[in-house]
């Protein structure tokens, strides 16, 4: 198995007991800086309602073709919420530099009347 050098910052939650945790912020992957994108939108209208969602993708290396994993919860509407998770499409370059990603999928099943919602959008640039 090949080793990939990763650098980052480790933060201590300063909590005691079972709530003690650490958060790792990765700053480079295999010598390349990493970046994230914001994403947000509104799900499809199903079973008489829709949901809003927003989040930040996981980091991915800059300067090479890549995708980002994403995960968030929808807003709490009609007494429930859904999970949104997936992997973006590949980077789509912009004429003046930078890039964005397309994403789409189906939420988890939830609600008194069990259902899902569709979603799609583009990340921040």
Tell me the helix content. under 10%
Task: Classify the beta-strand content into a percent band.
Answer: 35-45%
Taking the sheet with the most strands, its summary is: 4 strands, antiparallel
Give the distance, in angstroms, between the N- and C-terminal Cα atoms.
Answer: 34 Å
What gross morphology would you assign?
Answer: flat
Work out the helix count. Answer: 0
Q: What structural class is derived from the secondary structure elements?
A: mainly beta
Biggest β-sheet: strands ordered side by side in the sheet: 1-2-3-6
Number of strands: 12
Radius of gyration, in Å, reads 18 Å
Order of helices and strands: EEEEEEEEEEEE
Tally of discrete structural domains: 1
Mean pLDDT across the residues is 92
Sequence stretches where pLDDT stays below 50 over 5 or more residues: none
Organism: Caldalkalibacillus uzonensis
InterPro entries: YmaF
Pfam families: YmaF (PF12788)
Protein name: YmaF family protein
Structure description:
InterPro entries: YmaF. It comes from Caldalkalibacillus uzonensis. This is YmaF family protein. The protein is mostly beta strands and 125 residues long. It has one domain. 0% of the residues lie in helices and 44% in strands. The chain has strands at residues 6-12, 22-29, 32-35, 38-42, 52-56, 60-61, 69-73, 83-87, 92-93, 99-100, 102-106, 118-122. The strands form five sheets. It has a four-stranded antiparallel beta sheet with strand order 1-2-3-6, with no helix packed on it. The two termini are 34 Å apart.
Quick structural overview:
It comes from Caldalkalibacillus uzonensis. The protein has 125 residues and is mainly β.
